[in-house]
Automatic annotation (TrEMBL):
The gene is ruvC. Mg(2+) 1 binds at D7, D141. It comes from the Bacteria. It comes from Streptomyces collinus (strain DSM 40733 / Tue 365). The keyword DNA damage applies. GO terms for molecular function: crossover junction DNA endonuclease activity; DNA binding; magnesium ion binding. Its main location: cytoplasm. It catalyses: Endonucleolytic cleavage at a junction such as a reciprocal single-stranded crossover between two homologous DNA duplexes (Holliday junction). Binds 2 Mg(2+) ion per subunit. This is Crossover junction endodeoxyribonuclease RuvC.
C-alpha cells in the first residue's frame, strides 16, 4: 500500500509518501513541504498548494491520501487556512479518484507513539525509528505528514474490516425487514 500523508497548512503543507503493509517494515518514498509566502494573496497561495500537491501525486502515484482532520483551535484564522489547504488536498486526490482518509492528530500520535498526547519531538523520533531514517525529517510538518501515512497504513486494514462488518450487518437487517 502506498500512502501520501498531507499535514495541511498554507505556509508549510507537509507531504510524505510511505509504502508498506501493517506488520512489516515500512519504506519512505519521499518527504517535504509545499511552501507559500505568507504575504501572498490567499487565492495564489491555495493555487501554489494545489500545484505542489499535484507534483507529489504525479511523482509518487499513491493509492491513498491521508489528510490530517482539521480541528478547532483558538486562532480562527490559522484553522481557516489549515481547513482550506486540507480541502485542496482532498480535491487533488478526488480529481484522480484516489480515496482520502481523514485522521485526527490524536489518532496519528497514538498510532505512531502509543499515546494520543505525544509532542512533536516524540512523533518525529518515532517516525525516524519506524522508517529507519538517519535523522527526523525537518520541518515538523514533514514528519507529521509521514506519521499520517504510517497511521493510515496501520489503521486501514482494521477500518476496512469494520466497514465490511457494518455493511454486512446492515444488509442482513434490511433483508430481515423486507422478508
Amino acid at each position: 500500500m502506498r500512502v501520501m500523508g498531507v499535514d495541511p497548512g498554507l505556509t508549510r503543507c507537509g507531504v510524505g509518501v510511505v509504502e508498506g503493509v501493517a506488520g512489516r517494515p515500512l519504506t519512505m518514498l519521499g518527504v517535504g513541504v509545499v511552501r507559500t509566502p505568507a504575504d501572498a494573496d490567499l487565492s495564489l497561495r491555495l493555487l501554489a498548494v494545489e500545484q505542489g500537491l499535484e507534483q507529489w501525486l504525479d511523482e509518487h502515484r499513491p493509492e491513498f491520501v491521508a489528510v490530517e482532520r482539521v480541528f478547532s483551535q483558538h486562532n480562527v484564522s490559522t484553522v481557516m487556512g489549515t481547513a482550506q489547504a486540507s480541502a485542496v488536498a482532498m480535491l487533488c486526490a478526488a480529481r484522480r479518484g484516489i480515496p482520502v482518509a481523514l485522521h485526527t492528530p490524536s489518532e496519528v500520535k497514538a498510532a505512531v507513539t502509543g499515546t494520543g498526547r505525544a509532542d512533536k519531538a516524540q512523533v518525529g523520533a518515532m517516525v525516524t525509528r519506524l522508517l529507519r531514517l538517519s535523522a527526523p525529517p525537518k520541518p515538523a510538518d514533514a514528519a507529521d505528514a509521514l506519521a499520517l501515512a504510517i497511521c493510515h497504513i496501520w489503521r486501514a486494514p482494521a477500518q476496512n474490516r469494520l466497514q465490511r462488518a457494518v455493511a454486512l450487518h446492515t444488509a442482513h437487517a434490511t433483508k430481515g425487514r423486507t422478508a
